[in-house]
Amino acid sequence: MKKVAIVISCFMFLISCKNEAQTNTKPELIAKTETMNKENIYQFKVKNLSGDVFDFASLKGKKVMVVNTASKCGLTPQYKDLEAIYEKYKDKNFVIVGFPANNFASQEPGTDKEIGEFCQLNYGVTFPMMSKVSVKGDDMCDVYKFLTQKSKNGLQDSQVEWNFQKYLINEKGELEKVISPQVLPTDASIVDWIAK
User: By the 8 A CB rule, do 62 and 174 touch?
Assistant: First the structure.
């Protein structure tokens, strides 16, 4: 009888150890699952101002700045600085991708064609410009869902505060920094990141 009691005790001890081990590994499993769900920008295809497909996978190995733009905003002159840093670094694995958006005070009312003409005529923009999208609210485009949701980008939750907010993507397609709209594209925090 004693032997049976000892065997049962040992068995119960082993089961409790196994359960404890499973409990202790659950956070690690959750962390691994979250890491595995982390997305990158290369999964997206969008339309550019001309209506052609732009595949973010074509940017693999480059640093990318994604910026929401507007033609009738106090920050619109940032187009000049955006074009300047694009010209300076485009041959050094850097690209800017602009997304016109009308989410803030209706400051981008134009059609894709009008936006393209405005950018070319006023600022000589040569970096890729996408078709107009929504960067907040219920109709937010998928690229901006990725940029603003930690569950997708693995870095942080954010909101697009205004026109010309900048999202910096590393060479692996991962979100690395969020820069507020008022910070100029030529600011050291951006230029140092591009150049490093």
Answer: no
pTM (predicted TM-score)? 0.82
pLDDT at 7 over 80: no
DSSP 125: -
73 classed as catalytic: yes
Using CA atoms, how far apart are residues 81 and 87, in angstroms rounded to an integer? 10
Rounded CA separation 185/47 (Å): 24
Grade residue 115 by pLDDT with cuts at 50, 70 and 90: very high
Residue type, 68: N
Position 30 scores a pLDDT of 45
| CA–CA dist 23, 187 (Å, integer) | 48
- Report how far residue 68's alpha carbon sits from residue 46's, in angstroms, rounded to the nearest whole number: 14
Residue 166: its pLDDT value, please?
98
Q: Whole-angstrom Cα distance, residue 60 to residue 97?
A: 14
**Alpha helical stretches, state H, the chain:** 2-37, 78-89, 112-123, 142-148, 150-153, 188-195
Task: Catalytic residue, from 10, 17, 73, 141: name it.
Answer: 73
Residue 104: CB atoms within 10 Å: 20
d(CA 123, CA 18): 66
Judging by beta carbons within 10 Å of its beta carbon (0-12, 13-18, 19+), is residue 26 exposed, middle or buried? exposed
Quickly tell me which residue has 């697009």 as its tokens. 160
Instruction: State the Cα–Cα distance between residues 151 and 128, nearest whole angstrom.
Output: 27
